[in-house]
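no rush on this but wanted to send it before i forget. theres a chain ive been looking at and ive put its sequence and its fold in token form underneath. please have a look and point out which stretches look like helix strand or loop to you. thanks a lot i owe you, the record is right below:
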Amino acid sequence: MARTSPLPRSFPVGLSLLLVIATLLCVLQIANALHDSTGGGEARISDAYEGFFLSVGLWIVLAIMMLAAGITGTMPRWTALLAVILVPTAAVASVVALDMCSRNLRWAVVFLLALPALVAFYAFWARLPALHAALPAEKVSAIIWTAIFLLSIVTFALAA
């Protein structure tokens, strides 16, 4: 007997595991950003390296999430080009925000929370087509990628 309806998609276990890893890295990055170094120059350099490596790890995981969502999910074609440009831009903005936190601009932690959260949300939205009925593709894509762009630009402008 032939099946006429498409097979239902399974729950994105791999994407969920990547989200757990990204969340852990993000929490550690924020803890690093809000940590006051009590030692001398060596302690500050150690904190800077720790924050940098946490950021690199976080954004590699987020890039893998976007790649997985792009391959197994559905999203407008134009968002692939935006993702290739804006995910690395947001990663750099995240490192800039981390530097801002080290210069006692603690409110910059908002960028450390918002940028990864937007990318992770978009990856899950793209992977779960059931959400597309409630959240239309063109609108969600435009809103999320505009927000990522604006948050990145604002981070660069405020750090200057």
User: Anything to note?
Assistant: The longest helix spans residues 41-72. Helices lie at 13-34, 41-72, 77-102, 109-127, 130-134, 137-159. The chain has a mean pLDDT of 90.
